[in-house]
Amino acid sequence: MQIEIDHISKEFGATAALHPVSLSIPSGALVALLGPSGSGKTTLLRILGGLEFPTAGRVLFDATDATNLTVQDRRAGFVFQSYALFRHMTVFENIAYGLRARPRAQRPAKAEIARRVTKLLELIQLPDIGARYPSQLSGGQRQRVALARALAIEPRMLLLDEPFGALDARVRKELRAGLREIHDTTGLTTIFVTHDQDEAMELADLVVVMSMGRIEQIGRPQDIRARPATAFVKEFLAV
Amino acid sequence: MSDAPITHSRPAHRPPTHRPVTTESPGFRYALIAVVVLFLAFLLFAPLVAVFAEALSKGAIEAVTSLANPEATSAIKLTLIVAAVAVPLNAVFGIAAAWLITKYDFRGKALLITLIDLPFSVSPVVAGLCLVLTFGANTAIGGWMVAQGYPIVFALPSIILASMFVTFPFVARELIPVMIEQGRAEEEAALTLGASGWRIFFTVTLPNIRWALLYGVLLCNARAMGEFGAVAVVSGKIRGQTATMPITIEMLYNEYLSVAAFSLAAVLALLALLTLTLKTLLEWRFADQLAAAHRP
Predict the structure, then answer these.
(1) Which fold has domain B60-294?
(2) What are the pLDDT digits (tens) for A111-142?
(3) H/E element holding A158?
(4) Interface predicted TM-score of the whole assembly (ipTM), two decimals
(5) Which of chain A's ends, N or C, has fewer CB atoms near its CB within 10 Å?
(6) Which candidate from A72, A86, A152 shows the least CB-CB separation from B191?
């Protein structure tokens, strides 16, 4: 799905989290929103997911206005920073949640739900953990379960908030490759937020560098490295 | 013995004593335990035993007969009715208030939190008087209700209102810290998965707060059944009609009917013990779930 962000701004009280930003994301791209904390990248992601509403501006999905579409109707697969798995449900129930929450007419049959959950567990390469609770999983496993749960609703796009933030370096590398693979097999437009430039540069097709609620530069990783557009980008990449 | 290798008898090879660094010396520990046990024995256990001993001082038959007295049965019935109405209503209000305070930001939030705590700081007698002044037969609302044949004050409605006022904070106070700690992330996740508000409440929020809710409800129930001050003011203490268990106990005691007074007191204490037992049973039954929920 093609995503168009048209002069979106967001104010929390008197502080501006996002100055009007515009961004065009081609269908099927893997995009990184890169920037330090407080740069507005998470706010932008949450606006796309429908968890925040912009103060001004429009969001278009495939050229139709989606600015006022409710979270439920957006069908955005969202992976939260702390994963936000339902702690009192098993992994199976977590992944099945979105399918079971559908209105009766669109809800798949029980056997079909089980089949899809099993398939997703295979996709994240954890076929045997369906009966476990989130508290019994490692950080990397939780992250993959959160990804499977988001994919279960057959989302139109995948939004990930610092997906590898809480993991150690080795698991991080492994999961990066996993996300790339899932992106390539599903073909979903995928946007992830990160403050880690290596992660952004290695994984993304398109990197959006943000600072203080503004977009500093948009470009392919190699182009941003070769030609930083602003002093901020130059300095941020040098760290 | 003499065959044993020499090395084994060397003190350096004795297994080291594994005493955690945070542990005090045994003497200090036993002293602490003794203080706590003595304190509990004198302050909690002895009075409880005394109530039962006094109730049974003239034999079990006498005690049971005193409970069969219509005054006593009416008091037990009234107290159970009041708790049965006040506790569920306060549970619903408590959940609503805690939800509002923890999941939304709005103007006047601090004021609302203070208001919820108000019953803790206001004397129950004052609360009762306020109810009489608001809903008494001389007021507009109270007068109109009397004209319809449903008086509020000196009748069941005011007893329920007074009990609700006094027990209002328990559920909300129990829920707010738990809900703040859990944050909004799981609810947001459910939203992005397409769930409706009610579905999220019943499948995500409620299961996450059920233990705190249970504790709040139990505390609320114990207080609702035991409330004296506020109820004493609004009920008019009409024997066999508006006298709850605590009120009846006091009246019987003042009339030197000590077996009757203490038998009823023993029933009230048993009701409290019953709720505690229920809580323990539930904790035991769902121990693994409880542990799973508390791990991050």
Answers:
(1) MetI-like fold (1.10.3720)
(2) 999 999 999 999 999 999 999 999 999 999 99
(3) strand A157-161
(4) 0.92
(5) C
(6) A72
